[in-house]
Amino acid sequence: MRSYDADRRGLIALLTTLVLMVSLDVTSVQAVAQESDDAVEVAGRSLQDWRRTISELDLQDPASARYVPGLIELMQSAEVPWFTRRQAALTLGRLGPHSVEAIPILVGLLDDTGADPATAPQLWAIKALGLYGPLADSAAPTLVEIYRDDATSHLARLSILDTLSQIGPAHPSAIPCLLSVAGDTTSLSPQPIELRQAAIEALGMVGSAAAISIPVMARALDDHDPITRRLAAETLMRIGVASEIVAPQLLEHLVADESVEVQDAAANALQAIGPLVGPFLQDWLDSDDPVVRARIARIIGGWGKAAHPWARDLHVLWDDADLHVQLAALEASRNVSGPQPELVQRVVKLFTSEDRQIRRRAYLLFERCGDHQAAARDQLELLRHHSEDYVRELAERAFAK
């Protein structure tokens, strides 16, 4: 099952990073070289010295707080190049609780849009405030006001949505703003759609505290755009158990959505909701579609021992006509009931499959069976003399365990 979650902030952070990187053009690179010989000093230290200090700073060490006044001065100085000011601001944000005195100053910089919005203090101040997370709750009303300003750039709006997601329920204006943007379907132009998608993803970053957004996610699940549908399913996954109310709709997308990515996201959401959705899934274990049967087995297996009521249903699939379904059911049963001797023997039987992926997954599952591997000792001995080289090699490796 494909995972999207992963240690990322999604399209919001990606777009912000890309634009900031592109903005560091040839002129800026030349400025860096010139800066090395510059006589500018901040808090009695050269810019070169500050950059070196920033790169070596231990962000988790409370003693690093001694650099905060200098970093604030560095961030505020108009004589310092924008990219060094930005570096100081982001460092302050990463210092988190050791630099909370910088938050009001960063809020003050939100009004500075500069000549170039892509390099202006507003943009990197938004990003720095996001790094503080809930500590920057006092910035939420200003961020919401800036977002609603027609003059605010598209990139700044994307960044604000990201920062509001990190503030989350710490301020009462953050989630309602995200909810308003996520539910706005009035425009079909690319930028508003991108903002809507970013808000949907941002609500997912909030997690279970964004349960109020479930009706909006339910509508987004049926959007014409597959990216929107996928993001809605991922947000429901992160909200977790409260998303049970939309389980039938998620199941529908798992079974019938034209996008594999949406199907995967719906499956992940159903697994995250947990055994509460078991009754909705059980009937699909005998679906005519083997892909669906395998998906449902994997979801149930993801619940571990909590899926014990469906252990018998999984056992039935050990004899499925499709080997992929068999293997998915065996993997799930291993998670639910443990590595029983019969299960190990069934796994080793799959070593003879002509499908390399099946053989590989079967061997990995065999490795997870620990002491129960001995139940297949005689079986492996026979396979060591199999007519196919790939079977003999796999059996030899397993026999040596």
The CATH topology annotation of the domain at 1-172 reads as: Leucine-rich Repeat Variant
Distance between the first and last residues' Cα:
28 Å
Q: What is the name of the CATH architecture of the domain at 1-172?
A: Alpha Horseshoe
Helix content: 55-70%
Using the alpha-carbon principal axes, give the shape.
elongated
Describe the structure.
It is built from 23 helices and two strands. The protein is mostly helical and 401 residues long. It has a domain at 1-172: Alpha Horseshoe (Leucine-rich Repeat Variant), CATH 1.25.10. Strands 1-2 form a two-stranded antiparallel sheet. It is elongated, with a radius of gyration of 27 Å.
Summarize the model shown.
62% of the residues lie in helices and 1% in strands.
Features:
401 residues; mainly alpha; Leucine-rich Repeat Variant; 2 strands; 62% helix; 1% strand; elongated; disordered N terminus
Layout of helices and strands, plus pairs?
Elements: H1 10-23, H2 26-35, E1 41-42, E2 45-46, H3 47-56, H4 68-76, H5 82-95, H6 103-109, H7 121-132, H8 140-148, H9 154-167, H10 174-182, H11 190-206, H12 214-220, H13 226-239, H14 247-256, H15 260-273, H16 278-282, H17 290-301, H18 311-316, H19 323-337, H20 341-349, H21 356-367, H22 377-383, H23 389-399
Antiparallel strand pairs: 1-2
Helix pairs in contact: 1-9, 4-5, 5-7, 6-7, 7-9, 8-9, 9-10, 9-11, 10-11, 11-13, 12-13, 13-15, 14-15, 15-17, 17-19, 19-21, 22-23
